User: Fold this.
Amino acid sequence: MSNRSETQLVDGSGTTYEQFAVGVVAGSFGAFVLAAGTLFGWVPLADPVGGVAGATYFGAGALALGLATAGLGVVSRRDTVRTTPDRSAGLGVGLVHTVSWTLTVGLFASYTLGAGLAGWLVGLGAGLPIGYATVATREDIGATLPTAAFVSVVGLAVLAGVLSPDWTWEPAAFDATIPGTVVIPLLTMFSTLLTGWASASAYAGFGTRGRQNGAFLLASLIVILTLSVLVFLLLFVFERGIGVVLENLTLTAGTVLLSVLTTLCVLVRFGTVRPTAADGTDKIIAFVRLAMAVVLGLVGAALGFAIVANQPVAGETVTVSPTAAVGAVPGLVAGGVLLALFRGGDRWAPATAAGRRIESIRGAAVLLLAVAVGTELFTASELSVAGLAVVPTLVFTVAGAAAVGIGLALAGRWRPAFGSDTIPPVSRSVTLGLVAFLAACLHVTITGFGLGTEQVGIVAEGTIDWPFVMNPSQGLGIQQGVMPAMFGTIWIVLGAVVFAVPLAVGAAVFLTEYAEDSAFTHAVDIATNGLWSTPSIVFGLFGLAFIVPRFGNSPSILASQLVLGFMLLPLVLITSREAMKSVPDEYRDASAALGVSKWDTIRSVVIPAAMPGVITGVILGVGRIAGETAPLLLVLNGPNFPNAGPNVLSSFSVGFGLEPPFITVTNPALLERASALPYQLYAVITAGVGAEESFGWGTTLVLLGVVLGFFAMSIATRRYFRRKLHQ
Amino acid sequence: MTESQLTTATDSSTGSKQRLSAEETTTGESEERTRPEWREYSFPGDPVISVEDLNVWYGDDHALTDVSIDIPEQSVTAIIGPSGCGKSTFLRNLNRMNDRIKGAKIEGSVEFNGQDIYADGANLVELRKRIGMVFQQPNPFPKSIRENVAYGPRKHGDIDRGLVARLLGRDETDAEDELVERCLRDAALWEEVNDRLDSNALGLSGGQQQRLCIARCLAVDPEVILMDEPASALDPIATAKIEDLIETLAEEYTVVIVTHNMQQAARISDQTAVFLTGGELVEYGDTEQVFEDPQSQRVEDYITGKFG
Assistant:
């Protein structure tokens, strides 16, 4: 019967042995992170911490982990606890120990002791028996003791000062100097990986479940490592660049408050912020959201206090001036988002005649506002009747009515006598107020006259002053700015996408739906793959020799758009083709069986189903072309720091004539040289003497921001199409 | 009758009910053709579908051999037989879905209401509108339930809606709502989905998806509905619903159903055709007669389970 108890299905949780094993895993993980931190110089190694050298902690930690791991194995082997080890730890573990012991002992013996080739024999002499022992003994011993021995030896070596931060190793054969400050962290990281692996296995009692646990731990560590490399890269650029990007940024508190409010509303509307109502990963996400909401709320409260106390808020180089003035353009954006949010809960069907009258008055007011603002938009000037500005009067009336409506509705909650069938619900009055706000913002944007006072109201401009992003560069050290380059990059990327995506999708439709699988389609596939991996300078040279002479005979934005479009083409083609291939044939059959023609089927079934894949291609491609420098040197080739951005929007001109082609559309700005972010970055970095490093980092950060902005847009689009397919 | 004409032959003015091109060939050949071994199956009225000497090859593989069969209207015709005997091939020939398979070679004639559907100039759009098809795996589009049902009519221009239609003042959203409701009711699905017409069809259960496919097929107003093992991917309860539905549909439509489930064929069909290995049609007659008194020994073996 004693055997039976070993294989019971449900374990009682939380034995001391398991808790100890978890402790070792956690210790290994912590030591791993600390050692990684040492490599980046965040954790001191040579300097004393608390009177003891940092390296000593690593030595002691490694020794403790080694001994603990050994303890786990020995306790299991003596059958003090119930574990289910296999008869052997397996060849894989054996190989790991053979290699690590052979390498360590071999390196030590052959280079440090100068034993040469014989040292490697010594290494093999140590590695092979240990590997054999690992495989030959029972799993709980084989998986723990060799690990423990290795880690303890490392720990002892560090503790005894054999390996110290000052220690350097100059093996003659490598022609390199390897300092202790690198060797100790690396050895510690490797050791903690081994102890974590072994103790994770011990936690589940070795055997199949143990190995699964160990593999899971290793895989998670690798994932964390990969992610942290990416996050580190972003943080590094952010940390270097943020200072110069935000230099002298001035905002009004009103604008910031409005953005904070809008973000808060979006956050609460689109995600649960109640951790108790969520499970698993959602719980963590809900906590993060809750934290964000709390931070936003606190920021909002602080801003509100700043306005009331008339106290400017300044940190580093950013200043928030304590006026409640809201910029018209940010107001338009925020108001639009809020209106979209509140529109959902807006349905109200009044039951009484009075309620219906209120509804029709409300409709008339909204219509009147729309007509007034529309007229202003059309005439581009302020609309006034008998000296009275129409829009402001209307806005204040409507906003007042909305405020009264909100008040009445809230009062109606306490005193039901007011009756919910006469008074519109709160959300309906809120949307009315938002409509008035939007109308006011539009009015201010069109006419340029502010509404309200300087302190409280809507103003046309001056609420955001962001020198680095909103200005061109002016002379040495006067003003660093990226505005022309930023707009250059945005226009080039947009043009490339507009040019490449329809072509690529069209080609993919032809290849997937119409062309038979043949030598021709295979050749096209090979050619597109080849084009995608063609070096970008080749595209650039082609553009310079072929496109530039045909479009204005000068490097230009248009040429850059075409060249980068050519580069984007193969990737979007490849991903679109794959996406269309993966649309199930059942859809095509179903459509054909309804008598729907092939083209209609492609248009309304195949392309919508393939759309997320197409956009994935665009996402991948935009990242590459936005950062492309080499071809731009040839086909864009503008001044490094132009003093104005490309006026692509305003320089479109349409001419009509009586001779063919009757209509001529020209845009001189597209045919001019310009700058782009990577191009400007290259210029900043290669400026030699007087190179401004911080300017470069700032440009990099803005470039990252632009690319991330394109990402965000594409991902939102992809989400939209996916939802259409699956919801 | 002109709008329902399938072949755009030039001499159509003589009357579309007449067999257009197949007339001479069939009468000429039928003299010397050896009659299959089943006894002549006769029914009142004209056949909706009349197949003469149909042969199909996939490459070198002879999938159907000399199949001749007349299918009466407003009834359920079951096609049974072991796997790989050409049941589905036969079914897919009736609305020319086999055209979509590369390397398929087809000989013989298939007449629908007296018109040869394999004649030159046959109008595939019109043919497939009038001979609808439901597949083995439920295959709704990844769109809303409403869009699935209205897909065919919208694409055929029977229902005009959208921005342009609204601007021109001929938006037919009401007509579409009516159509969607009628088709879903006919497919016995309305009660289950009427509160979520705008949610995605992929969220329905397998049985509901299959009934949605039937509704989608009904929406283009077919005369004949071909069903290729419509219940084989479904559980018994969903299967029972589909079977009930098929019996109801047969009051208005001609249903041809392929099944490998002999009990199902016996339950729902009016006449049964048995295909056996090699793509031969071995027996065809009233379902009762085929199951209780088969003429051919091979069919008896198959039905009693000695073979197949």
